[in-house]
Design brief:
The chain is α/β, with parallel strands linked by helices. The protein contains four helices and five strands; from the N terminus they run αβααβαβββ. The chain has a domain of 77 residues.
Length: 113
């Protein structure tokens, strides 16, 4: 049996490392970047400068699809994301993952006491 895919788990600690990993993933996307993220992530995307990468990718004719739970708390952030991505609402979402032509990344957020 030929197993051509590779799986690895990385533990990223710190906002800068997480932002770098997301930006690298966008840079490695060719034509499509799809995101499924809980309602807290749109503010993270906007506040941490990742929107710049969204606009760069869109300029290269890349397509971004962004699924999240749109709430009264995050709607302004979602509107900003809509300038570069197709945004869709999914109620009760409790996940964070992103997909491009070659990879799938997922996040697990651990709260420390």
């Amino acid at each position: 049996m030929n197993n051509d895919h590779h799986s690895r788990n990385d533990v990223l600690v710190g906002i800068d490392n997480i932002v770098d990993a997301i930006e690298k993933f966008i840079d490695e996307s060719k034509t499509a970047y799809d995101v499924c993220a809980d309602s807290s992530i749109p503010s993270f995307i906007v506040k941490n400068g990742i929107m710049k990468k969204f606009f760069e990718f869109k300029k290269k004719n890349g397509r971004i699809r962004y699924i999240t739970e749109v709430t009264t708390w995050n709607i302004d952030y979602c509107k900003q994301i809509m300038k570069a991505a197709h945004v869709r609402h999914l109620e009760g979402l409790k996940a964070v993952f992103r997909v491009n032509e070659a990879e799938c990344h997922y996040n697990i957020v651990l709260d420390e006491p």
